[in-house]
């Protein structure tokens, strides 16, 4: 089983998002999965031009030749795809959105409908699971509303939304302890996904554990 993460944080390997992704992938690896982690910021990904040549002229192939060729191959080889992004202006980053737009060659011009939702049929039938990973700077859960709505389209098997995300990169030892505790839960989630294909309710609940009170967080930020 292969877990592949695509991190849409412009801060790449040093991002808070990547700390969560790494913990999750470490758990999956412990559970026997093969793992790969792509920092989208390190790749050249042009914007989709909307020409639909990848449907009508050269099915499955984009007319642009950039790093998306490699990333598409990776994407197709995954059993579990993890989309990672910090919240930027209440949404996923432009980097992740651009990547998702460029997945269009994997679709066909045939429409499917389920419970009133319309989508395009996959050009090659794939059985994949999806995981959404995000963190935001503010304490409010409302910051994830748009990202949640966007990811609901792929019916994710697991969603990890971490508020107070600034804490993930702290150098303050007392805070590092609680962050480590949280990342252990994320690791456990990766392990369960790899071994039983889903994350149990207890682990899911622990993923929402507060890292500190809002008052403490505001003090921590020094604002
Ligand atoms: C351009 C920009 C927009 C942001 N917008 C939001 C926002 O709408 N809500 C929020 O809670 N945090 C927002 N943040 C804060 C980031 O989500 C936060 O710093 C996060 O920890 C960055 O994660 P990363 O290290 O994975 O990139 C924004 C940050 C930037 C740079």
What does this structure look like?
By secondary structure, this protein is of the alpha/beta class. It has a single domain, classed as 3-Layer(aba) Sandwich (Rossmann fold), CATH 3.40.50.360. The protein is built from eight helices and seven strands. The strands form two sheets. Strands 2-1-3-6-7 form a five-stranded parallel beta sheet, sandwiched between helices. Strands 4-5 form a two-stranded antiparallel sheet. Strand 1 (2-7), helix 1 and strand 2 form a beta-alpha-beta unit. Helix 1 (16-30) packs across helix 6 (173-196). The radius of gyration is 18 Å and the shape is globular. The model has no long low-confidence stretch (mean pLDDT 96). The structure holds flavin mononucleotide. Flavin mononucleotide binds at residues 9, 11, 15-17, 86-90, 135-138, 143, 165-166.
Features:
223 residues; alpha/beta; Rossmann fold; 5-stranded parallel β-sheet; globular; binds flavin mononucleotide
Quick gist of this model?
The chain has 223 residues and is α/β, with parallel strands linked by helices. 37% of the residues lie in helices and 20% in strands.
Outline the fold blueprint:
Elements: E1 2-7, H1 16-30, E2 34-39, H2 53-56, H3 68-77, E3 80-86, H4 94-101, E4 107-114, E5 117-122, E6 129-135, H5 145-151, E7 158-162, H6 173-196, H7 201-206, H8 214-221
Parallel strand pairs: 1-2, 1-3, 3-6, 6-7
Antiparallel strand pairs: 4-5
Helix pairs in contact: 1-6
The structure holds flavin mononucleotide (FMN).
């Amino acid at each position: 089983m292969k877990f592949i993460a695509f991190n849409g944080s412009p801060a790449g390997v040093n991002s808070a998002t990547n700390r969560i992704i790494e913990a999750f992938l470490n758990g999956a690896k412990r559970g026997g999965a093969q793992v790969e982690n792509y920092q989208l910021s390190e790749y050249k990904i042009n914007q989709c031009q909307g020409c639909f040549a990848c449907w009508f002229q050269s099915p499955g192939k984009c007319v642009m030749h950039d790093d998306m060729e490699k990333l598409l191959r990776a994407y197709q080889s995954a059993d579990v795809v993890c989309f990672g992004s910090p919240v930027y202006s209440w949404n996923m980053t432009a980097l992740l959105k651009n990547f998702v737009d460029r997945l269009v060659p994997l679709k066909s011009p045939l429409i499917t409908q389920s419970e009133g939702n319309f989508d395009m049929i996959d050009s090659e039938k794939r059985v994949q699971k999806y995981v959404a990973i995000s963190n935001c700077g503010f304490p409010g859960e409302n910051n994830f509303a748009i990202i949640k709505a966007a990811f609901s389209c792929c019916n994710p098997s697991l969603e990890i939304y971490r508020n107070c995300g600034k804490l993930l990169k702290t150098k303050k030892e007392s805070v590092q302890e609680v962050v480590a505790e949280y990342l252990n839960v994320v690791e456990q989630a990766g392990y369960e996904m790899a071994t039983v294909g889903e994350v149990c309710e207890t682990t899911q609940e622990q993923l929402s554990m507060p890292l500190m009170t809002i008052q403490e967080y505001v003090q921590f930020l020094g604002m």
